[in-house]
Design a protein that fits this description.
about 140 residues, alpha/beta, globular, 4 strands, 4-stranded parallel beta sheet, single chain, Rossmann fold
Length: about 140
């Protein structure tokens, strides 16, 4: 189980440069947990992709449905007090803090492309390439 941020979800669902790596993450561990915030962030990414001409409205709606279907039952609300504490401790956004706090709560890692978060919270945040470079955990 990993915590996936909205960027990792977008990399997986919107065909692009980072899609192969996101697919490899999903193949390595397909149990992705997300804060409910992912919906707003992913929707914004879809809207931005429509405006940039990367996606059509129809294509974006199909990807929205795919994301909702893929993450059905995977949402978990992080503790708000811990999120607030984290935002003041290292000056990260409340959005980013939700993913980090969720990884802490679930005793797992956030897999992301966000180098700043990985630098600030190396015990709970792993870059996509680093996650893929790790040896898979044995299933004892």
């Amino acid at each position: 189980m990993i915590v996936a941020d909205a960027n990792l979800i977008a990399y997986l669902l919107i065909e692009g440069t980072f899609t192969p790596a996101a697919r490899a993450v999903y193949e390595r561990d397909s149990v992705w947990v997300v804060p409910p915030l992912w919906r707003s962030e992913f929707l914004n990414t879809l809207a931005t992709s429509i405006r940039a001409g990367v996606l059509t409205q129809r294509g974006a709606c199909a990807l929205w449905d795919s994301g909702i279907s893929m993450l059905e039952g995977a949402e978990c609300e992080p503790d708000a007090e811990d999120v607030l504490r984290l935002t003041t401790h290292r000056r990260v956004s409340a959005y980013d803090a939700q993913y980090v706090v969720l990884a802490r709560m679930l005793e797992t890692v956030l897999v992301t492309g966000d180098r700043k978060l990985a630098r600030l919270y190396p015990e709970h945040v792993v870059l996509i390439d680093d996650f893929l470079a790790q040896r898979p955990k044995s299933k004892a």
